[in-house]
Amino acid sequence: MPTAISVPTLFPILTPDVLLAFQFSSWYPRFASKSIKSTIIKPLTQDFHDYLRSDGVFLPEGSEDLSVRFGSCVERLEDSTDNSDADEDEESREPRRMFAFPELDAKIRDTVKQYGAVFPKLNFSSPRDAAWMLPPSFPLKCTAPSDVYSLLKSSDFILHDLDEDHVFEGCDSGAKSRPEYTLELVLRKWYPVDRSRELRCFVRREILLGISQRDPNYYDFWNEHGTQQKVVDALTRYWEENVKGKWEDTDGNYIFDFLLSRDFAKGHIIDFNPYAPRTDPLLFEYEELLDLLTEASSVSPSANHYHPVLKVVDSRSHPAAARNAPIYQHNMVPMEALALSGGRNVEEFAEVWQEQLRQSTEGTYSDDES
Question: Is the torsion defined by CA of 274, 279, 282, 284 positive or negative?
């Protein structure tokens, strides 16, 4: 562990080995009993990697459910767009590569059967920016392989985990070569989450410095002094009993997300993240956290232990408060729909879309009856 007399920097050194300590398969076995039930699928085939990196939003063959009908409709819409463009050079178009993952489909179905429903992520990133792909009343809830694939294919966030250069960006590797990095699919048990009780906790040199509300909406209960004190005490106690001292390989530098129970007395770990610029400090600034570290490091060992700072959205006019625009709104339209809209006004777009939906439905019923 770092010595108390060393001068703290804004960020600790992030090496490739330290970074990989935060991929899901590295930390989950140590904290499985304190976190959400999860299944890790690895290794994944190169074909699956190629599928995630391929252009467009489409589903692999065999991952059937209602979403496949939507996928078929999207492909017909693409055909309609192509046929209506007289300047399109048909001979220059290459046929789309088709994918099928029967073994992975089976593992996903088995996990869904075990948990009831799942939500997916890769080594580090989850497709939360693609939640709009599934019913809004059950965000990220997957009950079939097609749900999992549609979330992953519609997400910008997961692209980070597909490129090793992006994964290790910002790491101080020195003269050492990169450690092996293998893509993994994580299926976590899905259940409805009250985002108002989600917190992000910042730990530096094994000192819990700060706690931030994650959801940028205003909630009355977060401005009750008694509630704030109860949460700080409960979370500090949980951290001391279940997390503190278990991150020696990162010199005690990490950030973790936590979900409080309804009574604010306990909870469970959602995820761990590196203490690095890539992790959003939410209501804090990293410079502010450095000041807190300096302050905490100066506390005499004989004095009471350092109490972390809790930050919440304290008014509806708070700068971080959510606006009317939905979160990740930039990612809420499939690229195929954007392509379809080219050269059409809203009425023409709606007419073509409804016609293709009708044809897709009729074709599906006809296939079912034959």
Answer: positive
